[in-house]
């Protein structure tokens, strides 16, 4: 598939001038030290300006410098054909291997890569492996890499990594030098003025120029008389061109200056390389950035607009600004997903040019949503009085406060009304609120239900969910109130799962063992039981004593120990009752101007002392009902049945 | 700085050769002039006194042709080294894209080098330019003089090159190091092209 190098296409036969000097200097450098200076070397120019000539000249010179060097010249079409043939024959590996021993590959006409993605992929592999192996690649094209349609960015960047250099159309002097050289090669002798007349024609490329020369040669061959400048112009139809004086510069002199200016050419080549790299670099960076961010789902119109323009831009600055905006968008999107997950997918969060919209969306969400209610200041953990009846629950609560989400999750505090469930729950809430990032949702199930109804009503369900889902802990009081409320339970179920999944603490209070809760879904019950169900019992003597002590201390300043003992002895099924009793005694004493004492309290609680009457022979149950409605003979009451099975139930008739 | 003109698709690099008097700035330019093909160079403008000392400045435009579609020119300037021409130096320094500091390697000229370097810094600062942001190359000229008269590269770097700029040994009279210096400063200047958005 390799084409033999045309022996006529050497550096010696290539007329160098200002329009192509950089390309020639680079090509020479590459030929003299392949793989060292500019790898790959990418030469582009309009058709007919000497790309192929230069490519082959590199091959020739390289062989002169180092006879053992292996050079392959091929066009892109040949490359593709060979590749396809190899693939068809199942020999694609062999195709790649065959280039391993080649030192210089000269690949012509790579503009045909346009829109051919498969070929590009293969070429990319090829170029990459070549560059890694330190082998030299020289490519030519009729346009710069960045203008080849749909050219893979990675290829563009590979090309720009070497040297991209162009050849401009020759100016008059070079045209003249070329004509002289060609006429000599053909053994035809023209007057300088004749050649100048052709050179004067502003040929678009060298081929056109040589076409004109050929016509004159053909004419000369059949006509004996020497051709004059005017004759040539007439012959070629160039009459319209103004006659110009042919400058003294001739090809030979140009060659001289070339030789003399070796140092300058090197400089030129260095500068050209640096400049070309820089000029392509900005495009490459922007292309890369655009491709990357598009892959991430962001709109890159801003970058693409810049790529449309010819002028280089400060790619670093543009990319930096773009990245900064994307970072901000990411932060906004993250915040939005916690505020209102349903709107986090808004297109504004993926378009850096719509930053203001994204900011506005988040602000709107922030305005519409406060954090869920936190623990109430009325219930402090430290105020919770410990006693044997609440020891287990309190210990569990402390463990939860110390290691939220890990020890007992969920913690379910079960117990009848007034035993301190709410207090304990809010106490835990306070303990969990100490961290800087903590966001504790702590309120009643009734509030939860009301909020849900409102959210459904206002079509803000996603937002409502989001605000709970960003909570670091959820403490819900009186969950049994959700009994029969299917939708609320469903929401709670999903919320529960979401929080538990992220090891966030959940605390519920219920008014009885979960299994006995009325109307609560089995899946919620089983989840509650999966954590720790801690019972809070009605206050025992110790707890009552401690409470009475505290209440008296607070209300009276001093504590009458007898009074305290009397009040503590009174049965109460809830803390609220105990506090109510103390309150009643103290306030009554205050109203009556009496000193709160055991006697006063007894009279208040049990009524005026009643003279004990002898038994009239009438048998009573022994239980005397006081006028105030209380049961007087508490000795005859059993207040706490350990368990239903232990009870003896006697039917009284 | 006006490195790139997009309307006319031109790139113009202004490089100023700075340094103490008689350090070899003009010699650098003359050597470059001699190596640039006729079709690539403009007239070298040199305003000198009768003793061949640069009174105003030298100016050498070089045409590098079309690179990546941009017509590229380099303009090389020298400043008068003598202390009393500071106004001219400021003027020439205006809009410089890069500075070559041509130092005199002779040991006895060290103080002159330091003074000139400080003067460069002061003049740049006066134009609101931080010396750290301007591409700078130090050329230690006259390295061809006898060893006992000159400082070594290491010594000169130690004394002058505290910003760790590229430094090039040179003997401008014979051309040694001249193009290396020009290449180094060009690379520095062109690197800025992709760093900062051209205005």
Task: Describe the overall structure.
The complex is a heterodimer of chains A (653) and B (199). Chain A has 653 residues and is an alpha/beta fold. Chain A has five domains: 21-167, P-loop containing nucleotide triphosphate hydrolases (Rossmann fold, 3-Layer(aba) Sandwich), CATH 3.40.50.300; 172-260, Helicase, Ruva Protein, domain 3, CATH 1.10.8.60; 293-368, no CATH class; 381-535, 3-Layer(aba) Sandwich (Rossmann fold), CATH 3.40.50.300; 541-636. Chain A is built from 25 helices and ten strands. In chain A, the strands form two sheets. Chain A has a five-stranded parallel sheet, sandwiched between helices. A five-stranded parallel sheet of chain A has the order 7-8-9-6-10, sandwiched between helices. In chain A, strand 3 (104-108), helix 5 and strand 4 (136-141) form a beta-alpha-beta unit. In chain A, helix 8 runs parallel beside helix 10 and helix 12 runs parallel beside helix 14. Chain B is of the alpha/beta class and 199 residues long. Chain B has one domain (4-195): 3-Layer(aba) Sandwich (Rossmann fold). In chain B, strands 1, 2, 3, 4, 5, 6, 7 and 8 form an eight-stranded mixed sheet that branches. The chains are: A alpha/beta (653), B alpha/beta (199). Chain A binds chain B through residues 18-19, 21-22, 144, 164-166, 168, 173, 249, 257-258, 260-261, 263-264, 266-268, 270-272, 274-276, 278-282, 285, 310-318, and chain B through 4, 6, 9, 11, 32, 35-40, 63-70, 72, 74, 175, 179, 182-183, 186-187, 190-191, 193-198.
């Amino acid at each position: 598939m390799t084409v033999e190098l045309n022996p006529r296409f050497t550096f010696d036969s290539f007329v160098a001038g200002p329009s192509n000097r950089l390309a020639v200097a680079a090509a020479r450098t590459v030929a003299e030290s392949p793989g060292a200076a500019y790898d790959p070397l990418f030469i582009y120019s309009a058709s007919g300006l000497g790309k192929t000539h230069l490519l082959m000249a590199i091959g020739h010179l390289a062989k002169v410098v180092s006879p053992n060097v292996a050079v392959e010249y091929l066009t892109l079409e040949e490359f593709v054909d060979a590749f396809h043939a190899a693939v068809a024959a199942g020999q694609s590996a062999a195709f790649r291997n065959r280039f391993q021993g080649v030192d210089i590959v000269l690949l012509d006409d790579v503009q045909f890569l346009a829109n051919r993605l498969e070929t590009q992929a293969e070429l990319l592999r090829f170029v990459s492996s070549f560059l890694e192996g330190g082998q030299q690649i020289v490519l030519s094209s009729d346009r710069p890499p960045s203008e080849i349609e749909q050219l893979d960015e990675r290829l563009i960047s590979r090309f720009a990594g070497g040297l991209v250099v162009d050849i401009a159309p020759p100016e008059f002097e070079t045209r003249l030098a070329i004509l002289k050289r060609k006429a000599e090669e053909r053994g035809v002798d023209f007057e300088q003025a004749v050649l100048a007349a052709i050179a004067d024609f502003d040929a678009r490329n060298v081929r056109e120029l040589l076409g004109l020369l050929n016509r004159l040669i053909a004419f000369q061959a059949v006509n004996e008389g020497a051709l004059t400048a005017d004759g040539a112009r007439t012959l070629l139809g160039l009459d319209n061109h103004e006659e110009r004086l042919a400058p003294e510069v001739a090809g030979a002199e140009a060659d001289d200056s070339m030789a003399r200016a070796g140092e300058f050419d090197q400089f030129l080549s260095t500068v050209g390389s640096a400049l070309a790299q820089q000029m392509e670099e900005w495009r490459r960076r922007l292309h890369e950035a655009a491709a990357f961010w598009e892959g991430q789902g962001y709109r890159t119109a801003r970058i693409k607009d810049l790529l449309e323009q010819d002028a280089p831009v400060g790619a670093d600055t543009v990319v930096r600004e773009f990245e900064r905006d994307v970072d901000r968008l990411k932060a906004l999107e993250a915040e939005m997903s916690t505020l209102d997950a349903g709107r986090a997918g808004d297109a504004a969060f993926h378009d850096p040019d719509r930053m203001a919209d994204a900011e506005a969306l988040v602000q709107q969400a922030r305005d519409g949503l406060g954090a869920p209610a936190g623990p109430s200041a009325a219930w402090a953990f430290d105020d919770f009085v410990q006693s044997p009846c609440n020891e287990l629950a309190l210990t569990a609560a402390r463990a939860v406060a110390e290691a939220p989400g890990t020890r007992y999750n969920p913690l379910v505090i079960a117990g009848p009304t007034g035993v301190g469930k709410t207090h304990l729950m809010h106490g835990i809430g306070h303990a969990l609120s100490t961290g800087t990032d903590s966001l504790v949702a702590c309120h009643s199930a009734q509030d939860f239900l009301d909020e849900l109804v409102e959210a459904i009503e206002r079509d803000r369900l996603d937002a409502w969910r989001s605000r709970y889902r960003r909570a670091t802990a959820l403490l819900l009081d009186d969950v049994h109130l959700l009994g029969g409320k299917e939708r609320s339970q469903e929401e709670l179920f999903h919320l529960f799962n979401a929080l538990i999944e992220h090891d966030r603490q959940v605390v519920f209070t219920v008014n009885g063992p979960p299994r006995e809760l009325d109307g609560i879904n089995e899946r919620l019950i089983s989840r509650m039981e999966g954590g720790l169900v801690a019972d809070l019992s009605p206050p025992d003597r110790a707890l009552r004593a401690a409470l009475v002590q505290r209440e008296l201390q607070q209300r009276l300043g001093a504590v009458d120990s007898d009074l305290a003992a009397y009040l503590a002895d009174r049965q109460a099924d809830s803390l609220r009752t105990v506090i109510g009793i103390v309150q009643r005694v103290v306030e009554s004493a205050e109203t009556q101007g009496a000193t709160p004492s055991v006697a006063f309290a007894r009279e208040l609680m049990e009524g005026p002392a009643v003279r004990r009457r002898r038994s009239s022979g009438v048998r009573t149950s022994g239980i005397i009902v006081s006028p105030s409605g209380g049961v007087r003979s508490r000795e005859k009451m059993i207040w706490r049945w350990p368990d239903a099975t232990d009870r003896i139930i006697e039917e009284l008739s | 700085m006006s490195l790139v003109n997009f309307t006319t698709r031109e790139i113009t690099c202004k490089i100023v050769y700075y340094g103490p008097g008689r350090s070899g700035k003009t010699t650098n330019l003359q050597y470059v002039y001699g190596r640039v093909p006729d079709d690539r160079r403009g007239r070298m403008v040199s305003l000198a006194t009768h003793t061949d000392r640069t009174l105003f400045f030298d100016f050498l435009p070089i045409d590098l042709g079309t690179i990546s579609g941009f017509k590229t020119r380099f303009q090389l300037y020298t400043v008068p080294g003598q202390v009393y021409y500071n106004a001219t130096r400021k003027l020439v320094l205006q809009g410089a894209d890069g500075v070559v500091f041509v130092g005199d390697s002779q040991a006895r000229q060290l103080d002159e080098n330091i003074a000139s370097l400080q003067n460069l810094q002061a003049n740049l600062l006066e134009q609101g330019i931080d010396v750290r942001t301007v591409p700078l190359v130090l050329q230690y000229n006259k390295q061809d003089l006898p060893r006992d008269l000159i400082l070594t590269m290491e010594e000169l770097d130690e004394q002058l090159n505290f910003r760790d700029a590229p430094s090039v040994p040179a003997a401008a009279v014979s051309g040694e190091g001249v193009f290396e210096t020009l290449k180094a400063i060009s690379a520095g200047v062109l690197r800025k092209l992709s760093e900062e958005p051209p205005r």
